[in-house]
Amino acid sequence: MADRAEWTDGDPERRTGVRQRLTWWADAMAYDDEHDRLATIGQSPENRRQVLIKLMWIGIWMAYLGAPVSDLTDGHHSVPATMCGALGLLAFAAIYLMLVFRHTGRALSRAAVFGALGTICVLAAVLTLTMGDAWLVLCVYVSVAYGAVLPLRLSRWAIPLNTAFMVAVGLLVRGSHGLLSALVIPSLLGGFAMSGVRQMVRTTRALRAARATVAQLAANEERLRLARDLHDLLGHSLSLITLKSELAGRMLPDKPEQAARQVADIERVSRQALVDVREAVSGFRRPTLEAEVAGARTALAAAGIAADLSRAATHHPDLPPDQEGALAWALREAVTNVVRHSGARRCAVTLDETDDELCLTVTDDGRGATGPHGNGLTGLAERLQLADGRLETGPGERGGFTLRAQVPLSRGAPVELPSQAAP
C-alpha cells in the first residue's frame, strides 16, 4: 500500500490513470453481470441453475400441448388409438425439442434437420386427421420449428406455407373451423418470432466471439507494452550499472573514494530502476524529456563518450504529454544503443522544431548499424506510431549512426488581447 501511495500521490496524471483503469474494470464487470443471462443463449447449460431455467422455459412452452394430452385422457378414443396417439405425441415432442433446443446450441447436419422437419410435419398432419381437431395445435409447433432451424430466406416462405397446410388439414377435420381461425395468427407470429430469436442467438454468438477476440488483443497489447517498457528501462539502467561497475573496479585499488562514489551511483541507479519497473508494470510511467536528457548526460559521461547536448532544449509548451513521452523513450533507447553497441567517441543530441513537428536527432561517430533492427528500435517505432509520430534511422553524414524521432506539436489558437485605451 505504501508503494501504491508513492506511485500516485502528488501526480495528477498517475491518479487519472489509476481511475481510468479501475473504471474500465468496473464497467467490464458490470457488463458481464448484466449480460450473464444473454451470454447463455445458444449454449448448453453449465450449472444446475441454468438447467432449471431452461427446463422451466421448456415446460412453459410445451404446456400448449395440453389440448392433445387432454384429448388422450378424456377416453374418447379406443385403447389402441390412445396408445398410438401417445406414442406419436411423444415422438413429435422429442423431435421438436431436438430441433429447437439442441440445434440452437449445436448445429445438426442438413440431412438431419430436413428429415426431422419432414417427420414432425407428417406426424402433425396424421395425428390431426386421425385423432381430431384438438391436435391441430401441432402445426403451430411446426411453424415455430421452421423459424428456429431454417435460414431466414427459407423460413419466410416455409412458415406461410405451413400455415396454409394447417388450414388445409383443418378443413378436412370436422368441427375444427373455430379452432382453425384461432391458430392461424399464432402459427405465423410464432414462426416469425422464432426466426427473430434465431437471429438473436447468432448475433449473441458473434458478440461473444468478438468479446473473446477483443480480450485476447487487449492482453497481447498489454504484453507488448510491458515488454517494450521493460526492455527500454532495464536495458538503459543495466548498461549504466555495468559501466559504473567496471569504472569502480578500475578505481578501487588506487582511488577508493572515487570508487565509493561510483558504487553509490550504482545503488541510486538500481533503486531508480526498481521504481521504474514497478511503474511500468502498473502502467503509470510517463518519462519526460528533461529527465531523459539528464540521464543521457550521465550515461554518456560514464561510458567516456563526449556528449553534445547544447541543442537539446526541453521546454516545449506545445508538446502534448503522449508525444513528449514518446520522444523521451526515443532518447533513452538511442543513448542506450550508443553506449552499448556503437563504440562511439562523440554523441550529439538535438531537438529541432520544424513547422508543426518536433524532431529529436541522436547522432554518433561509431561503427554504425551492423544488422537489422532489434527489439528496442522496433518497440520505439511502435511507440512513436501510437503518438502519431515516426522513426527514421540510417548512417550519419560523417559515418556512425543517426536516429530521428518526429512527433506533432499541438498549436493553440492565437488569443487576441483586448486593446486598452490610453489614459
TrEMBL record:
<feature type="transmembrane region" description="Helical">
    <location>
        <begin position="111"/>
        <end position="129"/>
    </location>
</feature>
<keyword id="KW-0418">Kinase</keyword>
<protein>
    <submittedName>
        <fullName>Sensor histidine kinase</fullName>
    </submittedName>
</protein>
<keyword id="KW-0902">Two-component regulatory system</keyword>
<dbReference type="InterPro" id="IPR011712">
    <property type="entry name" value="Sig_transdc_His_kin_sub3_dim/P"/>
</dbReference>
<keyword id="KW-1133">Transmembrane helix</keyword>
<dbReference type="Pfam" id="PF07730">
    <property type="entry name" value="HisKA_3"/>
</dbReference>
<feature type="domain" description="Signal transduction histidine kinase subgroup 3 dimerisation and phosphoacceptor">
    <location>
        <begin position="222"/>
        <end position="288"/>
    </location>
</feature>
<feature type="transmembrane region" description="Helical">
    <location>
        <begin position="79"/>
        <end position="99"/>
    </location>
</feature>
<dbReference type="InterPro" id="IPR050482">
    <property type="entry name" value="Sensor_HK_TwoCompSys"/>
</dbReference>
<feature type="transmembrane region" description="Helical">
    <location>
        <begin position="51"/>
        <end position="67"/>
    </location>
</feature>
<dbReference type="InterPro" id="IPR003594">
    <property type="entry name" value="HATPase_dom"/>
</dbReference>
<feature type="domain" description="Histidine kinase/HSP90-like ATPase">
    <location>
        <begin position="305"/>
        <end position="382"/>
    </location>
</feature>
<feature type="transmembrane region" description="Helical">
    <location>
        <begin position="179"/>
        <end position="197"/>
    </location>
</feature>
<dbReference type="GO" id="GO:0016301">
    <property type="term" value="F:kinase activity"/>
</dbReference>
<keyword id="KW-0472">Membrane</keyword>
<keyword id="KW-0808">Transferase</keyword>
<dbReference type="Pfam" id="PF13581">
    <property type="entry name" value="HATPase_c_2"/>
</dbReference>
<feature type="transmembrane region" description="Helical">
    <location>
        <begin position="135"/>
        <end position="152"/>
    </location>
</feature>
<feature type="region of interest" description="Disordered">
    <location>
        <begin position="390"/>
        <end position="423"/>
    </location>
</feature>
<keyword id="KW-0812">Transmembrane</keyword>
